[in-house]
Write a structure and sequence with these properties.
The structure holds two protein chains of two kinds.
Chain A lengths: L1 H6 L27 H29 L11 E3 L11 E2 L3 H4 L1 E5 L3 E6 L10 E3 L4 E3 L6 E2 L5 E3 L8 E6 L5 E9 L13 E2 L1
Antiparallel strand pairs in A: 1-10, 2-3, 3-4, 4-9, 4-11, 5-6, 6-7, 7-8, 9-10
Chain B lengths: L8 H10 L2 H6 L8 H9 L18 H4 L2 H20 L9 H10 L6 H25 L8 H23 L4 H11 L19 E2 L2 E2 L7 H6 L6 H32 L8
Antiparallel strand pairs in B: 1-2
Helix pairs in contact in B: 5-7, 7-8, 8-9, 8-11
Classes of the chains: A alpha+beta, B mainly alpha.
Chain lengths: 192, 267
């Protein structure tokens, strides 16, 4: 086998053969990466790769949650208490903020205009003295208590307090549910 | 003694065309006049190769398959084509969306295009259910086809999600409140919905991790209610996101029919 290999070398005919280079005994080339370093690089590499994948995934998920919302604020000032008539349901803030402010003899409460059935916006029907949802016909008394249709529980009330400047402050991010006994909370009802 | 058909102008032209480099670079086999070439015609085509080269005689029997899978795919193609055309006119913003839909019916030539898209969508939901019913009744979900059944279930869900996302785009009262009602279900997602089970557990002290501004519904709508963000997100999902995933899964679905032994035979 070795002879065949040798004879396969191209031979230049007619010229004296130049001194063939002495074959250097093949010393094993020193590897760029030692066996120990290679074995250690495996978990480190996989950990780095996994961390990169995981953080990319988290960052992509975070991308779905915007930092700035072009929505009406959850809390707003609704004017001074003297601007409300006793016994009336004020619908001025429903379109912009989704809240009715009801002025009773003893004070104020803010009802969130979201039907407790499936989340539509009910309407205040002053002639019938009730809130009526157009989607599936749920009806609520002016207190927010449900009395007809599929709504399973009363409307929710929002935090209503006096701001420092004397105006009424309504904060929808704090909600009070009647069935949890939260309507007795002092911030669920603003005493006049 | 084999007789050669007489040469005519047509046959000479045909021979010339089929002998050009262009023709032979496209079709790498002879005319499909024998079984080998017919098999090659299917196998050497990227679209046809998803389909089996040979199928059982029962596989083309209308009474056995109802052709419901094929009809569903056909309707998907109709929806893709008509949907693409609608995209030339429809702008997914609160200011324009509703009037663009009106204009599509009243101002744009061939105002029936949107109706074709809508009726095609209804028909696709019906055919995909009937396809599932047929597969169930013929027992075609049994091994070795159980994987493909699951792919089909995902495709069914994607079809329903395509209908759901498309529902919002007309941006009329029906659309807005239907999506309000529908997306409220996401509030009850376990752990990820702020009214769902387990959401209270995800809190750091008094700070809730999952609230109305950070739950699954918020990610779906891009806001706390159905507004500008929801319209754009549903539009992107309807036109790009879901069709892309559905298209990939359809390729898998068809290919697996072949790999699992073709359309199942009658029991």
């Amino acid at each position: 086998m070795a002879d065949e290999k040798d004879s396969a070398q191209p031979q230049v005919q007619g010229t004296p053969p130049a001194a063939p280079p002495q074959p250097v005994p093949a010393a094993a080339p020193k590897p760029d990466v030692s066996r120990r370093a290679f074995v250690w690089s495996l978990p480190v590499g996989w950990a780095a790769f996994s961390a990169a994948c995981a953080s990319s995934l988290i960052a992509t998920g975070r991308f779905l949650f915007p930092n700035v919302l072009f929505e009406p604020p959850q809390a707003f000032k609704a004017g001074f208490p003297s601007e409300f008539n006793v016994g009336e349901v004020d619908v001025r803030f429903k379109d912009a903020f989704g809240v009715w402010i009801v002025r009773e003899g003893e004070g104020f409460y803010a009802l969130i205009a979201v039907c407790t059935h499936l989340g539509c916006s009910p309407n205040w029907l002053s002639a019938e003295n009730k809130f009526k949802c157009p989607c599936h016909g749920s009806g609520f008394y002016r207190t927010g208590i449900n009395f007809e249709g599929p709504a399973p529980r009363p409307l929710e009330r929002a935090r209503i307090v006096l701001a420092d400047d004397g105006q009424i402050l309504v904060d929808k991010s704090v909600k009070f549910q009647q069935e949890k006994g939260e309507w007795t909370n002092p911030e669920a009802f603003l005493k006049a | 003694m084999a007789t050669k058909p007489p040469e005519t102008f047509l046959s000479r032209t045909w021979d010339y065309i089929t002998d050009t480099q262009i023709w032979r670079s496209i079709f790498r086999h002879g005319m499909p006049s024998n079984s080998r070439n017919r098999a090659l015609a299917v196998m050497s085509n990227v679209f046809l190769h998803l389909h089996p080269v040979k199928i059982r005689k029962s596989g083309v029997r209308l009474k056995f398959t109802w052709c419901m899978g094929g009809l569903t795919f056909f309707l998907f193609l109709v929806e893709t084509f008509t949907g693409l055309l609608l995209m030339f006119y429809y702008r997914p913003t609160v200011a324009y969306a509703y009037m663009d839909i009106i204009d599509l019916a009243e101002q744009v030539p061939l105002g029936i295009m949107r109706e074709i898209h809508r009726w095609g969508a209804h028909a696709m939901v019906i055919t995909v259910w009937l396809h599932m019913f047929r597969v169930f009744m013929t027992g075609s979900y049994k091994p070795p086809r159980e994987f493909n059944w699951n792919v089909g279930v995902i495709l069914l869900v994607l079809t329903l999600l395509l209908s759901f996302t498309g529902y919002l785009l007309p941006w009329d009262q029906l659309a807005i409140w239907a999506i309000t009602v529908g997306s409220n279900m996401a509030r009850a997602t376990p752990l990820l919905g702020h009214e769902g089970p387990g959401a209270q557990l995800l809190a750091l002290g008094d700070v809730k991790m999952v609230h109305a501004g950070s739950d699954a519904r918020f990610a779906l709508l891009g806001g706390r209610f159905v507004g500008e963000g929801a319209l754009l997100r549903f539009y992107v999902l309807h036109c790009v996101g879901i069709p892309l995933v559905a298209g990939i899964l359809m390729a898998v679905h068809f290919w697996r029919v072949r790999k699992d032994g073709g359309i199942s035979g009658p029991m």
